[in-house]
Write the structure tokens for this entry.
Amino acid sequence: MDTDKIKEEVRLRLMKTISEADQKMTQRELAKRVGISLGKTNHWVTEMVNEGLVKFERFKQSGNKSAYTYVLTPKGIEEKFRLLIHFLSRKLREYDILRKEIDDLNQEILKFKKV
């Protein structure tokens, strides 16, 4: 998988997790939910904050100093929508290719059964 596809997929997973979260969470918790390392989570979240896609606020009342509320900005919501459309389109193309391969394999199996 090329790096652009990986970047899109990771960013989409992070955005989906952030938009579905209804509570404060640490980056460690975010990393665990998304299934990537803490270092990569920090990198991607920082990048998205710098791009204005995500904002965060520290919980002052929290005993956990690393607990934040992550929120998609309006720009982030638009980017999530764009990524969803692009991801779905790519997956549908991959599905069509896979479906063709499966049909071809089934045809080949049928030829062997006739022999």
About this structure: The first helix runs from residue 3 to 20. The longest strand covers residues 54-58.
